[in-house]
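Sample pair:
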Amino acid sequence: MADRSYTLFSAGPMMVGGMMPISEEARAMDARPAWNGYVLVDDVDVYAERVKAAGGAIHRAPEDIPGVGRFSVAADPHGAVFNLFETASDEERAPAVPGTPGHVGWHELHAGDGPSAFAFYSGLFGWTKAEAMDMGPMGVYQIFATGGAPCGGMMTKMPQTPAPFWLYYFNVDAVEAAMARVKDAGGQIIHGPMQVPGGSWIAHGLDPQGAIFAMVGPKG
């Protein structure tokens, strides 16, 4: 990229993400290290206008990545950040087998308000409701799908959570072993391991620079 380096990550033969320094513009807005997800759309410019019309915000106007596609940095009405992405390629990429280590296996929104957040995203992207779980004092956890099997959940954030955000769960071959690797590499475990419905185990962590992430897989 013209103004910064961008490192691509792959898991086996498949590209799964990227990493770049926080821009000076973002630092001026008090941005912190974080993972940011992309929603694939057919026209970024059109969807950027739809985001604003639905009460969201555009933090970075649509911009081309030469030879790759077009993107925009957006936020929902409560401030949770996500990216819009339009690919420049006509090639269909086969999805990874569910549970493949190194890929994101679950997308979780800690929302400013769960019901209105679901209305925002479903209205824009056609996401649909799956099972809803009553978690008592923590509220309702609404599982959602984006056209196939369920791939994420939304809930109203806890009062102590500073701001709404998306949390990404990386598939691992064994959660406890992955937790040990996190600590050995200078990160922290802030929650877990904990078993969730369906038999999987999860843990939440911080990398050495403070970016939050999660892991999901068997306990081992």
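The two ends are 40 Å apart (CA to CA).
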